[in-house]
Design a protein that fits this description.
Layout: H1 3-19, H2 25-38, H3 43-49, H4 53-70, H5 81-96, H6 102-113, H7 121-131, H8 140-156, H9 166-172
Helix pairs in contact: 1-2, 1-5, 2-3, 2-4, 3-4, 5-6, 5-8, 6-7, 6-8, 7-8
Length: 181
């Protein structure tokens, strides 16, 4: 994955996490800045990246949709099922990258979605298993391993992951990756 593709995925993930209120608008602006540095470029992305942290909560709802659209990425409506699934995949990617522990992943999944989102039901159940580790047979390492396996399954069998085609869509829309000179 090129730096620009990785930045597109991160921006898509941050947008999904923002859509379910998992992160704040300032984190989306930071991802927009990182995307510019990595070589993504579009007029709306530049405007979004120029947003200050003080302005972010007010401006991101209006600035994010055109920025994602110009890059061929998706913005999920607040708390939509597709957005919840995209946010769950983003959290799974973070855990597999070492940014979250397995316990933190399942806690956040369980806290955010409960047992209502079918694609992450097993992760929510594993949060319950962590709570009862001292009372039951599985060890922490066994539960951690199952969380890793479930996170990989979630990423290998997504229902819809538009970030995979982001570079092609951005090129198709006439926006190209900047190259440093």
């Amino acid at each position: 994955m090129t730096p620009a593709e990785a930045a597109a995925r991160t921006l898509q993930d941050q947008a999904a996490l923002w859509s379910v209120r998992e992160i704040g608008a300032g984190d989306v602006v930071t991802a927009a800045c990182d995307a510019l540095v990595a070589g993504l470029d579009s007029p709306a992305l530049r405007i979004l990246a120029a947003c200050t942290r003080a302005e972010a909560d007010y401006d991101v709802p209006d600035l994010l949709p055109p920025a994602l659209d110009e890059l061929g990425l998706s913005l999920y409506s607040r708390d939509s099922v597709a957005g919840q699934e995209a946010a769950a995949r983003a959290l799974a990617r973070r855990m597999l990258a070492g940014e979250l522990t397995p316990r933190e992943l399942v806690f956040r999944i369980h806290q955010r979605f409960g047992h209502t989102l079918a694609s992450v039901e097993r992760l929510a159940q594993l949060d319950d298993e962590y709570d009862f580790l001292e009372c039951e047979d599985p060890t922490r390492e066994q539960v951690d391993a199952e969380v890793h396996a479930e996170a990989r399954r979630l990423l290998e069998h997504p229902t819809d992951d538009p970030a995979d085609a982001s570079a092609a869509a951005a090129d198709k829309a006439g926006y190209t990756y900047r190259t440093s000179t």
